[in-house]
Each structure stands twice: as structure tokens, then as C-alpha cells.
């Protein structure tokens, strides 16, 4: 059975003072019934990991370079994230695809590097609103999956996140039927590429305007194994109810 995962993406938010939120989250959910992950800015991973030691809260990065080391000013390698205390790294987020010109081929190279360093790669895919309106959603998701996901992926080193670009930070979410259509499609595609065993073991997260008020409805959708949460992951007060809803969701 797949272990459910509540993942928070702090994006470029937070500070040392904000790490109190991780303490509060861990204190309020000592036995959450799901995996809990916070991906803060890279500078906060080491201090956050030190404070989260012994709690159910794991730490992750938001990006890494495809190379293990070298002349790449401003970049961070997967091994560096791991050494700082990260167990996961988000890759191919739409904000990096759009803001940094990341292609699916680059995302695959980064995910391969992350997996080689012993990190779980959380690979993000998602359609633009115009692509959904043109009924191209599944084509877009399928293409991004084929090009972004490394061949050596397993349920232990890959998590796949469906984040419709138009749902991120907008307060808009797809309907449960729309989420289910994409997640069932992703599951079938993973099974076809990797075989039923691996294909069924990869966790599928939904991301985009998840909050306490809509979490239970989203977690009831087939093949939704958790969430990748932006704005509502920044405080224990907002993220706690999402963690609780996931912990209480029927397997
Ligand atoms: O981009 C997201 C998580 O990676 C979603 O962001 P919001 O939850 O703020 O919509």
C-alpha cells in the first residue's frame, strides 16, 4: 500500500524565525498517519532538519543541478541537499519550467541526479489553462511524463505531482472528476512504462490551491496519494488541517 504524503513547498518564503512553524506542526501532529515533508528555501534545510530530528517532519529541496559538482555559480547539487538533511527534492515545478526555461529533458537529468544521490525526486507536471481549454490536458501530461521521468524510477525514488498551472496560487482547483481523470491516466501510464509493480507503487500528489477546506474532498479522489501544497504550507495553522485530512483519508 502506498504511504500517503503531505508535502509543503515554501517556494521563496520563510526565514529562521519561520522554522517555529515546523516545530508547531510536529508538536500538533506527532503521529500524523502519513509522511509529512517541508521543502523550504535551501538555506533553511540544515537548520530545519536539525530542529525536526526525531519528529515525523522530513525536509526537501525545491531544485537541484543535474551535475554532482562543478563550475555552476549559484546552483546546488543533489548531494549537497542530501548532506544538508534533505530526503526529497521537487523538480520541474511549473515556476521553474516557466521562470528558468527548464525543459522536461533537463528535469529528467536533474531527477536522475537526485535519485543517484539517494533523494526522492518529486517530479511535477501540469497543463496551462489554454491547454485544458483546448482539451489537450492528457497529451501534455503524457508528454511531460515521458520526457521528465528517469528510466530508473521506482516507488522509492519517484513521486509524481500533478499541478495544473492555472490552479497554482489562484484559489481555483479542478473538479474531483478532473483530478481523478488525470491521476488515473498517470497511474495507467506509469504501469505501462514501468510494469504494474513499480507503476502502482509511485505516489501521485495533487497540487494547486489545496487548503484545509478542500483537502478531504481531494484526498477522496482515486489515485490521489497526497498533496503538494504551496501557500497553505507556510504555517502550522494552515498546513495542520491538510495533514490531518490526509492522515484520516481512507487508504
Ligand atoms: O505550486 C504549488 C505547490 O508546489 C501550489 O501552490 P498553492 O498551494 O499556493 O496553490
Automatic annotation (TrEMBL):
PROSITE patterns according to UniProt: TIM_1 (PS00171), TIM_2 (PS51440)
A molecular-function term among this protein's GO annotations: triose-phosphate isomerase activity
Listed pathway(s): Carbohydrate metabolism; erythritol degradation; Carbohydrate biosynthesis; gluconeogenesis; Carbohydrate degradation; glycolysis; D-glyceraldehyde 3-phosphate from glycerone phosphate: step 1/1
InterPro entries in the record: Aldolase_TIM (IPR013785), TIM_sf (IPR035990), TrioseP_Isoase_bac/euk (IPR022896), Triosephosphate_isomerase (IPR000652), Triosephosphate_isomerase_AS (IPR020861)
Keywords, ordered alphabetically: Cytoplasm, Gluconeogenesis, Glycolysis, Isomerase
The EC number(s) this enzyme carries: 5.3.1.1
Pfam families referenced in this protein's UniProt entry, alphabetically: TIM
Gene3D superfamilies the UniProt entry points to: Aldolase class I (3.20.20.70)
Binding of substrate, residues: 9-11, 169, 209, 230-231
Keyword Cell membrane belongs to the record: no
Cellular localization per UniProt: Cytoplasm
GO terms for biological process, alphabetical: gluconeogenesis; glyceraldehyde-3-phosphate biosynthetic process; glycerol catabolic process; glycolytic process
Superkingdom of origin: Bacteria
UniProt-listed SUPFAM superfamilies: Triosephosphate isomerase (TIM)
Any one cellular-component term (Gene Ontology): cytosol
Catalytic activity: L-erythrulose 1-phosphate = D-erythrulose 4-phosphate; D-glyceraldehyde 3-phosphate = dihydroxyacetone phosphate
Active site: 93, 163
Oligomeric and partner information: Homodimer.
Job description of the protein: Involved in the gluconeogenesis. Catalyzes stereospecifically the conversion of dihydroxyacetone phosphate (DHAP) to D-glyceraldehyde-3-phosphate (G3P).
UniProt family annotation: Belongs to the triosephosphate isomerase family.
Name of this protein: Triosephosphate isomerase
Organism whose genome encodes this protein: Rhodosalinus halophilus
Encoding gene (name): tpiA
